[in-house]
Amino acid sequence: MRKMIIAGNWKMNKTISESIELAKSIKTSSNIDVIIAPTFTSLKSVSETINNNGIIVSAQNIHPKDSGAYTGEISPLMIKDAGCKTVILGHSERREYFNESNQLINEKIKKTLNYDINVILCVGENLDQRKTEKTNEILSEQLELGLSNINDLSKITIAYEPVWAIGTGEVASPEQAQETHSFIRNKIKSMYDEETSNKIRILYGGSMKPDNAEGLLNQQDIDGGLIGGASLNPEAFNKIISLAEKISQ
Ligand code: 13P
Question: Which helix (DSSP H) or strand (DSSP E) does residue 6 occupy?
Answer without folding.
Answer: strand 5-9
